[in-house]
Design brief:
heterodimer, A: about 350 residues, alpha/beta, 8-stranded mixed sheet, 4-stranded antiparallel sheet, 11 helices, B: about 350 residues, Rossmann fold, 2 domains, 9 helices, 12 strands, about 20% strand
Amino acid sequence: MSDETLVEVQDLKIHFFTDEGVVRAVDGVNLTVQRGKTLSLVGESGCGKSVACRALLHIVHPPGRIVSGKILYHRRLDNGLSETVDIADMDPKGREIRDIRGKEIAMIFQEPMTSLSPMYTVGSQIMENILLHTNMSKKEARALTIELLAKVGIPKPERLVDEYPFRLSGGMRQRAMIAMALSGRPNLLIADEPTTALDVTTQANILDLMLELQKQYDMALLFITHDLGVVAEIADEVAVMYLGRIVEKADVDTIFNAPMHPYTQALLRSIPKIAMKREELDPIKGMVPSPYRRPGGCPFHPRCTKALPECSTIVPAITKLNENHLVECLLYEDLATRKAMERPS
Amino acid sequence: MTEQSLSYSSPQMQDESFLLEVNNLKMYFPITRGIFARVKGYTKAADDVSFFIRKGETVGLVGESGCGKTTVGRCIVRAYTPTAGEILYRRADGAVVDLAKLQGEELRPYRKDIRVIFQDPYSSLNPRMTVFDIITEVLKVNKLAQPEEMRESVEYLLKRVGMRPEYMQRYPHAFSGGERQRIVIARALITNPRLVVCDEAVSALDVSIRAQILNLLEELQADFDLTYLFISHDLSVIRHICDRVVVMYVGKVVEIAEGLDLYISPKHPYTEALMSSVPISNPRLRARGSRIRLPGEVADPSNPPPGCYFHPRCLYAQPICAKESPPLRLLDGTRSHYVACHFAEELSLRGATMEE
């Protein structure tokens, strides 16, 4: 672990114990978020990306439960030292996690319409977070709120601070949400599909804003999305998730230009491109299986075009292709183990 | 309401290849106040919209939310009665009718010719009806056939859209989003339509399913000789499926062009901004920094700015733009590039970043 590591998720398992059976929404996820960097978590609906990220704030709704694993948060203290705490181990309603939530780790959601309360003014909702985490007076908090609203590009912030959310457009609400998230000066901002509900021009503006603020505040960004175009625009590192597991992880250039996992390759082939020539799309066959009927072996094998006979029985382990490129696929595992065996001799 | 001069001069359905022609379509929704519902003003959801669709082609209708693209689609299927304008439709026998003028029973024959595929397959299927009932409802309502006689056609159609015919007796809750969208497509096709309005038909679907449905729509178009009006906000989907594209901004058409032409050389500043904000799925082509940032917000269609609706956000606006509304006109030196901008000839605008 380097000093630059902010959050390390180790073998995280979150299962949902429903009447119909156990849903293994997150099934052994390993992630590392570096300070000041952007990690993008990509996957289709139901792959567990949102559940995994919410767990970083220890928000897991019943019947879900963190079954095992660690979420190590490396915190820098004022005296120059650092300490490591395990978020997974904390009481979800306890003091410790509540000090982290909204302050050191903040989150913004997809629906800016539903994540702001319609009953309170925009300003009072942002102030609430400031008052909760600092010793500021109401007056100071209000001044800071206006400053933050201006920072996220809201015109006439001193007037808007007293407006109710319904008066704001979708893009403006998302900006207000970002202002709220920034109010605690977080080390990590988790953004769960923050631009999916927005128009393209608004999306472009919000992405630019987030990148700008990231630099200014030197915060890490964990960006969850299903839109590969957005990933290509903002990510440093990319983790591709399928049925509760991270199947491939690499830097953004490798993911898009030299993907190794058949799922990543298939995903990239199935997106329509803005290109000179219109080519036929190559969709992934079948669909994501029901969470109650997870296929054995590699979860992707029923849809995989390169599946080997062993894929239906053996769960692939993580193969390190190089320092930054991890993949979970039998196609590479053999190769790597063979190399490992050859090396001693 | 001010009548605008008809400057979009198309040969009024003289061209045999036209299936549909929309001329100066206006759809105003009244804004009412008080207990007597006094009309305070109008939301001009579609304001002077004109375009045409040729037989067998796929026309894309793009724009951001609130630009009126869905309203136009709904006027064409006559879910709305337009405030003004023409919707000329060429019937299979060659006769041309104006759908905008027809009412009630008169529309019945066209209900089967023009069908819709909606965005959200979760809310567009009645959870209390079986797949068979859902698909055959239109036949019952329009007295086209007895549903019992249709079992074979439904079986065939389900197979055609990639579903197992045995699933006919199941209810929608048993299906995933992609399968539901296939049911929605089967329901649209059961009447043997000639024009299908796809209103954000793939926007709610996951990447891998979206590709399947897009391919299916293309196959069906070839097999059933369909014409599509494809309404979407997603420019990469539009690029993939459309032959020609109509761009709308606050109730008005700002540009119409052949697909590739629009992406390579947009002539309207709004189209340019749209193109530059599309995320490109290749990190080596990152648009960071060079992206056009539109200032301000989309204009309010009930209280649009004077002149060109886009001028307050336009990077190239001149004094005239705030005064005169530019008509949609054929661009000099082109056969089919229409644009509504005073300076379309002078401006040299940047196209979309092309991947390969």
